[in-house]
User: What shape does this take?
Amino acid sequence: MDALTLLQQRNSAPKLAEPAPDQQAIDQMLRAATRAPDHANLRPWRFLLIEGDARLRLGELFARALSARNPEATEADCEKARSKALRAPLVIAVAVRYSEHPKVPLIEQQLSAGCAAHALLLAAESLGYAGIWRTGANAFDAGVMRGLGLASNESLVGFLYVGTRDGRAKPLPEHDPKDFATQWPG
Ligand SMILES: Cc1cc2nc3c(=O)[nH]c(=O)nc-3n(C[C@H](O)[C@H](O)[C@H](O)COP(=O)(O)O)c2cc1C
Assistant: This one.
């Protein structure tokens, strides 16, 4: 698939199955991610690859975080939280790693980490895999970030669920690009 087609047709996959990208594919995805635009070459990103049984521990983290956020959460709620980590054979937690820089505020570093996350998804799709970027309460939860080992200058931009598309791709939405772009007359 050529680059333009990939950019125009990338399509998130809410249902994912085995196989996950193999090590070679993961290496290619990471090479794509680390080509994200990056003001002052700060490399403001970190990727945590969570596979196999590590996903069970991620699920426990999600369940503990839910209980801490909501003491009324039932065992069924916690089980649902645990199952989120098993939605794909590979989960990539994408973090922004903030460095103080006189010209590069936090927002620029977050945007850069977001571009890296997008590149991971695009690369996965170009290699025949699929994925979806999710946040939800877990991505903003300090307990989840601590449990993942994030430092105080790091936070999550999201979880990428990656694997092989399960079922048919959903139809691409029909957007008219003209609805989002106008000539600025000056
Ligand atoms: C920062 C960010 C966070 C997102 N969080 C969620 C989420 O928690 N749950 C969800 O279903 N979709 C979430 N999405 C949207 C999906 O990743 C996806 O873009 C959406 O389902 C539309 O599908 P498409 O990418 O194929 O157009 C998020 C997207 C972004 C960019």
In short: The beta strands are 16-17, 45-51, 90-97, 130-134, 154-165. Helices lie at 3-9, 23-33, 54-69, 75-84, 106-126, 142-147.
